[in-house]
Amino acid sequence: MKLLEYEAKNIFENYGIRVPEGVVINNPDEMMIHLPGLGPDVVLKAQIDVGGRGKAGGILMSDAANAPNTARELFSRTIKGVPVAKILVEERLPIEHEYYLSITLDRSSKQIMILFAETGGVEIEETAQKDPEAVRRAIVNPLLADVPQFLLRSLTGSAPKEISTVINQLYHVLVEKDALLAEINPLVTTKQGVYAADAKLILDDNALGRQGITVNRDLTEREKEAELHGFSYVELAGSIGVIGNGAGLTMATLDLIGQLGGHAANFLDVGGGAGRERVCRAVRLVAGMPGVSVIVVNLLGGITRCDEVARGIVDAGVDQQVIVRLAGTNETEGKRILEEKGYLMLDTMEEAVQAAVEATE
Amino acid sequence: MIFGDKTTGIIVQGATGNQGAFHLDLMNTYAREGGGRGVVAGVTPGKGGLVVHGVPVYNTMKEAMKEHDAGASVLFVPGRAAGDSIMEAAHAGIDLVVAITEHIPVHDAMRAIAFAGAEGCTVVGPNCPGILSPGEIKLGIMPSHLFSRGHVGVISRSGTLTYEVVDELSRAGIGQSTVVGIGGDPIIGQTFADVLHRFEEDAETRAVVLIGEVGGHLEEEGAAASDIPIVAYIAGVSAPPEKRMGHAGAIIEGGEGDARSKIRRLEQMSVPVASKPSEIPAMIRNLL
């Protein structure tokens, strides 16, 4: 789950990383109360989960006198389709230099990876492409409580010493908050010290519970409902509803729909042990999406009982046509149940997908 | 056989749970049919002394290892305790842990994999269907009736998609040496590169089917680091960016790890890439 900038900054601050003075406002009027504490110049930052926020008009500079009007302007904007509901208003730092710092998990080494560059800011991706050497990299064994000094030295080069402290503090954030990514870009130096001018933090969805988070905000309402049933679910824009078991097989089903010229409405992985009730709920959930005109069910498993799955599909009793590919135990019985009720059951996923695409043409 | 054979004794961690007990029995049935040793012990803390499907259960890995000669453990322990159980197994001296469990917090898995490595123990998974070497050993939950013995290795991040491909291969008369589900999480104990190296050393394996999906770059890195003949298939060409497609690791992030770029890089290395699972048997036959 992605945290918003101000939430990430609150956490970073708890770990000793300095952040600019700032307040979060929910409407332009709240600005007046907080202004006196923020100095002559302020930065207004839309609190939205959108990449390239600055370039898309989500960050505005202002002097204190104009700040309420600037806030009004920012609240009225929609940034890449996302309305602005919260603004972080911060003091404007007298920046001397910008650095880039990112800590993430490295799939290849199966360890923690720290990236640091002496030139940070919005152009970091271009910098990395033009001059890969400019982004220094260190791999840290996750059994270590702190980042070793020799690695910190190899990362920071000629950067001020305080930066090493920040790297270690951010390492603790990543580990203790169960984060997949902790990033500060830019990490800035001023005469007063080192500050996190921006903050990014993505938490591990499998650890939200022990971090005290009960609702994953990244999910849409229907995705949340699906998660309650133990399904993995992603909304797409097409007309063919898709239900599969296993992430890979379900993705392969979507891909086949695309190759045959169709458009999938969703990705739904019912998970292991697809029984009667689960299948019934899955079919109803997908049928309830606007624009779904046909549903493909593609279930393959050694221990999946086809007769149970077939009963689940019949129980759902949805209006749309349901085309089924089932392989597992009791296949013949499953086929009999479905065909008796007029459902189409096919032997391979290609046949099933073909039939679904034809039904939408 | 790259992770075990008929002579490998198996311990099931989480043996008294529904999943653990069910698959313990299936693994033993498979061993009996093929003359393998099968599951020699189960471990569940607090349930020592019980017998599950004829297999004695112990409180700790240490006790189980003291009483039985075992080379691999298959882990069904629930997410929050699973990382700890992997470390317990490694500390007790087991050579291989196959972690079936899904939803292990990724930092737990990463620490457990690092700890196991330092103890000389290999971890496969987590969030995987396990390993099956037809006629030799089954370590996990794969439906064995779809498999047949032969000379093609299979490595996959997925479960059911692997069964789909194995089914296609078996129907086409192409048997498998070992099929390895490496897991759908972002951090896994054995990557494509690790398993490909094992296949290179394996006299039984002549070519490998590599089944990948969106997220990360392990597929391309594996293919680049290996010289065994490979046919690849990558799922998720239609996956939208920044959305987790069922697996914790199946996500296109910051423009990285999409299926088309993986396919392009594999093709640049002259690795043939199937556009759908049914194309794989004919393509792999060309390499045998």
Enter the CATH topology name of the largest domain in chain B: Rossmann fold
CATH homologous superfamily identity of the largest domain in chain A: Succinyl-CoA synthetase domains
Strand content of chain B: 15-25%
Class of secondary structure makeup of chain A: alpha+beta
Oligomeric state, counting identical vs distinct chains = heterodimer
Number of strands of chain B: 14
- The fold-level CATH name of the largest domain in chain A is Rossmann fold
Total count of helical runs of at least 4 residues of chain A: 13
How would you sum up the global shape of chain B?
globular
The overall number of domains of chain B is: 2
Structural Rg of chain A = 26 Å
The count of DSSP E runs of length 2 or more, i.e. the number of strands of chain A, is: 18
Name the CATH architecture of the largest domain in chain B: 3-Layer(aba) Sandwich
Average pLDDT of chain A: 92
Low-confidence stretches of chain B: none
- Placed side by side, the strands forming the largest sheet of chain B appear as 3-4-2-1-5-6-7
* Sequence stretches where pLDDT stays below 50 over 5 or more residues of chain A: none
Q: What does the largest sheet of chain A look like?
A: 6 strands, antiparallel
Helix content of chain A: 25-40%
Can you put this structure into words, describing what you see?
The complex is a heterodimer of chains A (361) and B (288). Chain A has helices at 5-14, 30-34, 54-58, 67-75, 124-130, 149-156, 162-176, 221-228, 247-259, 276-287, 306-316, 331-340, 349-360; strands at residues 22-25, 41-46, 59-63, 78-79, 82-83, 87-91, 97-106, 111-117, 135-140, 179-190, 193-196, 200-203, 232-235, 240-244, 266-269, 294-305, 321-329, 344-346. Chain A is α+β, with helices and mostly antiparallel strands. Chain A has three domains: 21-91, Dna Ligase, domain 1; 97-210, ATP-grasp fold, B domain (D-amino Acid Aminotransferase, Chain A, domain 1), CATH 3.30.470.20; 221-360, Rossmann fold. In chain A, strands 7, 8, 9, 10, 11 and 12 form a six-stranded antiparallel beta sheet that branches. Chain A has a four-stranded antiparallel beta sheet with strand order 1-6-2-3. A four-stranded parallel beta sheet of chain A has the order 14-16-17-18, sandwiched between helices. In chain A, helix 11 links the parallel strand 16 and strand 17 (321-329). The radius of gyration of chain A is 26 Å and the shape is elongated. The two termini of chain A are 38 Å apart. The model of chain A has no long low-confidence stretch (mean pLDDT 92). Chain B is globular and about 55 Å long. Chain B has helices at residues 18-34, 61-67, 79-91, 106-118, 160-171, 192-200, 218-224, 259-268, 280-285, and strands at 10-13, 39-43, 51-52, 55-58, 72-75, 96-99, 122-124, 130-133, 137-140, 149-156, 176-181, 207-213, 230-235, 273-274. Chain B has 288 residues and is α/β, with parallel strands linked by helices. Chain B folds into two domains: 10-124, 3-Layer(aba) Sandwich (Rossmann fold); 142-285, 3-Layer(aba) Sandwich (Rossmann fold), CATH 3.40.50. Chain B has a seven-stranded mixed beta sheet with strand order 3-4-2-1-5-6-7, sandwiched between helices. A seven-stranded mixed beta sheet of chain B has the order 9-8-11-10-12-13-14, with helices on both faces. In chain B, helix 6 (192-200) runs parallel beside helix 7 (218-224). The chains are: A alpha+beta (361), B alpha/beta (288). The interface between A and B is large, with 47 and 63 residues.
